[in-house]
Amino acid sequence: MLKFVEEKRRKEMQEEIPPEGYTEYEMTVEEYEEISTLTKGNNLGEIPDSKLITFWKRLGKKYKFDWETGKASPKRGKYFLAVPESN
Predict the structure, then answer these.
(1) Is residue 13 part of a domain?
(2) Are 27 and 35 in contact (CB under 8 A)?
(3) Residue 87 has pLDDT above 80, yes or no
């Protein structure tokens, strides 16, 4: 029964609608590997915050979103949420 509940919840999370104003984006495998490495190093105190900020600014420019709004998506992994740039 517990396994069924976990699978159901995982499916629900993948289908969640982003919060109002947010759009879901998918980064490349290379970008995901980079952010994973940067985050792990940052959590260990080995990589400064400035490198993470530079990463999000670069993604914001590429995908056209406000870099300060980037956050994890319920789908996890390569998916993230952010507020698109206003034109």
Answers:
(1) no
(2) yes
(3) no
